Amino acid sequence: MDKAFEFTPDIEVLPSHVPLPGMGYLPVNAFIIKADEPVLVDTGTGRDSDEFMKTLRMVVDPQELKWVWITHDDSDHTGSIQKILEAAPKARLAANALAVMRMNAAWPVPMDRVYWLNHGDGISAGDRKLTAIRPPLFDNPTTIGIYDDKSDVFFSADCFGAIIPTLAQDADDLKEDALAQGMLSWASGDCPWVHAIPPEVFARQLDTLRQLAPKSILSAHLPPASRMTAKFLDTLALVPASKPFIAPNQAVLDQMMGQTEN
Ligand SMILES: [Fe+2]
Ligand SMILES: [Fe+2]
Question: Could you tell me which residue ranges the Metallo-beta-lactamase domain spans (predicted)?
Fold first, then answer.
């Protein structure tokens, strides 16, 4: 878990990262929207759950949280969900119905606190409307990002993630080529299905976001990015025809372990 930082006066980033030996880093972000009805977006990874709770408490009193929005039920987004629901008794759990049902197979989700959303549905957080938008790339069928109409930010879940060479608090601090390459690798590895989609068909999937044109993208797996939406969409358009990502195999692992021992 890294130190929380302010993206805007009303949005705080709760960042963490996973080191990928030989490749770089994968950021893992959760966010707090300091709306009239405060919203936590995702709940970090389970392995740094204690630190996550500590960091969260430095930004907001969990008792004040009104919403916990789970973009999808992958473990890097739901790490502290049970602790949060306990610490934040006034918060409702906003998520896709399938995400809730899948989580309910692992632990008893309090159904009276759940709020089910599909693409296009929304909630009011008092001073803003938060609309569920399915991002063009996703690794889990329950994925819903969030468009915040007050800050003109799109919380994009796994979409626009990147394996990056150095950690940063702003995507603009990364070298453009390295960022584009890291985004292509992540997109290919996280969403291998995209290689089965004709590029011109996938290009149409990007239209929703092109039209929405959010000022900023807050991905779970990228440093915050402002005024880069058009450029990012152009990068994603290249994914179907890009070189498919191949995960390291046992020979690579043996080599890495050997290096660690020496
Ligand atoms: Fe995911
Ligand atoms: Fe993720």
Answer: 27-221
- For helices 229-236 and 176-190, the axis angle rounded to 10 degrees is 50
Assign 82 to helix, strand or coil: helix
Q: What residue numbers bound the domain in which 239 lies?
A: 5-261
Instruction: Indicate the length of the chain as a whole number.
Output: 262
Contact of 113 with 136, CB cutoff 8 Å: no
**Cα(47) to centroid(ligand 2), Å:** 14
Distance CA 39, CA 123 (A): 11
Which ligand lies nearest to the CA atom of residue 79 in the structure? Answer: 2
Domain count, the chain: 1
Q: What is the CA(141)–ligand 2 centre distance, in A?
A: 13
| Cα 261 to ligand 1 centroid, rounded to whole Å | 32
CATH number (domain holding residue 161): 3.60.15.10
Per-residue model confidence (pLDDT) at position 258 = 85
**pLDDT tens digits, one per residue of 161-189:** 999 999 999 999 999 999 999 999 999 99
Phi-psi region of 23 (alpha: psi -120 to 50; beta: other; left: phi over 0): alpha
